[in-house]
Each structure stands twice: as structure tokens, then as C-alpha cells.
Known about the structure:
The protein is about 70% helix and about 0% strand. The chain is mainly α. The protein has a single domain, classed as Amino acid/polyamine transporter I (Up-down Bundle), CATH 1.20.1740.10. Helix 15 (about 375-405) packs across helix 17 (about 435-465). It starts with about 25 loop residues before the first helix and ends with a helix. Its main location: membrane. It is a multi-pass membrane protein. This is Amino acid permease. It is found in: Membrane.
Amino acid sequence: xxxxxxxxxxxxxxxPHRGLARNLTAPGLVAIGLGATIGAGIFVLTGTxxxxxxxxxxxLSFVIGGIACGLVGLCYAELAAMIPEAGSTxxxxxxxxxxxxxxxxxxxxxxxxxxxxxxxxxxxxxxxQSLAAEFGLHLPPQLAGAPGDGxxxxxxxxxxxxxxxxxxTRTTREAALINGxxxxxxxxxxxxxxxxxAAHFRPELWRPFVPENAGSFGAYGWSGVFRGAAxxxxxxxGFETVATAAGECRAPQRDAPVGLIGSLLxxxxxxxxxxxxxxxxVPYRDLDVADPVARAVDTIGLPGFATVIKAGALIGLTxxxxxxxxxxxxxxxxxxRDGLLPDVFCRVHPVSRVPVASQVVxxxxxxxxxxxVPIGILGEIVSIGTLLAFSLVCATVLILxxxxxxxxxxxxxxxxxxxxxxxxxxxxxxxxxLPADTWIRLALWLxxxxxxxxxxxxxxxxxNRSG
Length: 467
């Protein structure tokens, strides 16, 4: 596509461009992965998973989730190096299965990233209100929670999404720099929490380590450990954002695998350590709150340290929401580029080279969800959407190994058939552990997506081919 001439008209501000700016490197990709991954999963959903499903064995849930993600991460690394384009799983599915399956998974990714950003924003709101309360500042209850949580709208959650959306309409380089600085602060504070918390660890809170089953599948016992793994699997969604950024890498064949695998290894170790300390500071049944880490720090009895940790949680959640919104914008860009969404979503700003329209629409939608939907529902939706996308990534590796075996693969999955098959099996097992109503919500969302494809996308895709 031709380079746009310099214009002054407002209507040309989003003129088509040859592509997104390629200015990311391996350290930047690792920072993006850490920024996206270390967020609501560890600062928010750990409390829900421990209190309702796994108990002190939550650290085992993270180990299981990390193993499943490791298998998927290897498959992502092969595909990201082989097909370094924006769009992540959508782009890989299009390359192996065609437009309709790609649309289905692209629509699923929209759900995944939007719900991830919204979940993080709700957690951010909880920590922000907890920190503000230390200084005597309180929001009216009507503005402090979603309708299902006793309020009318969660104003802080919607507000942080809108602020981050504004940042993402600027250049990728600026957003990546801010993300990198915040990630460094976040990791340092997590290590401080693990170190100080370990010194106040109460071993009696780990007895029994795997609580007895409460009478239903998924409520404690080993079934609870697996359901906890399915719920906190949301915590690993961030490394997929690295794949969506492959189209903006200077050397994607080298940097994308490093970013994917490096960020996944670091986050898994941090998650297991933090879950172990968290359940050793607070009885697991008392962790079912929006700010479980803040609750744990309060038990240590160091007021100044509690303030630092809460501020660190806010930083962590900010980077997680930022990168989720970033990834979703790139998926919208890739889908629109194929004609399945209006062309305005694949236009990039001639100066910042950012898909501004995609980012703005996504930000408004996600802000509405964050302000109006309770966090428990959001977390489960993200997990099932992520697991479905990860299963298709593993399947795509198997398909392309057979249909396009001679294509250059800068990174190859070791024992691809076994690794990808185990990845699919792991994701399917965790999906089966989720409640039935989560499956119903996923089915409704996919049905809406199929209706949009039949009424708009299929015709536009044909027009693109004939043109």
C-alpha cells in the first residue's frame, strides 16, 4: 500500500499506512509479557481461587497452569517466529484453517482481551480504594462497585481504562517505555512482598495443604486444585500479548521466542512464590476479596510497607491493563485488514503509526464492561476464552507441520507432535473444570460473532478476494 502524503485535513489523520512501526526488541517484548501477565491473576484472582477452590494448594494450581502454558508457549514461539504479524492466534488460524475459523478465534480473542483488561481494571479499583482509605478518602458506594457488587458503576475501573486508552493512541515506543519502567517497579515490589511475607509465614495455615472436598466438584480437594488452575489460568494470558506484538519487532524471528518463553518462565516462578506466601499469611477462606495482597500485608503489621505494596499492586495492574488493551487493538487491526471488520479499524495514524480507531472503540467498550460487570464473572470468561485460543494455537502447529512442512521455521517446537498434543489436552482439561454457565456465556458470544460474520464479514471477505 502506498505511503500517505502529509495532510492537514482532519479526515486524513487516520489514512491507511503500510503497516505498524517496527521498534520493539527482545527486552521490550519480555517487559510487555511481564506487564500483561503480572496483574489481576496474582493481585486479584489468587484470593478467589484460594478461598473458593484450592485453599493453600493454590501454588500447585499455578504450577499446573504454568506447565500447560509452557507447552502452549513453545507453540506460540514457533508460530510467532514463522508468521511475525499482528493478530496472534487469529493470524495463525487464518494461515492454517482459513477465514471462518480465523474469524471465530479472532472474535474469541476480542472477548479474551477485553474481559482481561476489564478484570484488571476492577482489581485496580479495589487496590486504589484501599490505598485511598488510608488517607481518609472514600468514594460513595454507588460509584465504587458494579451493580452485582452493591453499586451502580465502578467509576475508578472505567476511568483507568479510558486513561490507558488515551496513552495507547500515542506511539508504541512511548507506551513501551512507560510499561518497561512500571514493570521494573512491579517486579521489585513483588520480590519485597515475598521476602518480607516469608519472614512472617504461619505454617499452621497450610494444614491441611489440600483441604477436603466440600461436597461438590471443584470446591477443594484435588478437583479444586484443577479448578483453581483453570481460574488462575487467566494470570498467564499476558504472554500471548507478546505474539500480538511480533509485527512491531525489529527482528521477530529471534526476539519473539525470547519474549514469549522468557516472560512465561519469570512469571510462573513469581506466581508460585507469591501464592505460597499469600496463603501462609491469611487463612485461605478470608482471601475472597478484591485486594487479597493488601489483606495479607495488613496482617504483617508494617503500615509503611503495606502502603508500598498497595502502590506496587496498582502499578502491576496498570501495566497489565495497558498491555491487554494494546493486544486487543492489534487483533482488531488484523481482522479489519482482512475485510472482516470496517476499514477504519485497520487504518493507522500517519505519525504515531498506531491503529487509533481500533484502540478508541476497544477502550470505550472495555471501560463500560469494567464499570458494570462483577469481577468473578469476568475472570471465568477470560479463562475459558484464553484456553480455547491456546488449544487452537497448538492445533495450528500440528496442521502447518503437515500442510507446509518446508516453510522456514526460525524456532521449532521440540517433539512437536507430543508437545502440541499435550498442550491441547492440558487446555481441554482445564476448560472442563470451569462451571457450566461459563460455557454458556462463551457459546452466546461466539453465536453473536457468527451472526456478524454471516451478515457482514463473509461478504466483505469475498469482495476483498475479488478485488
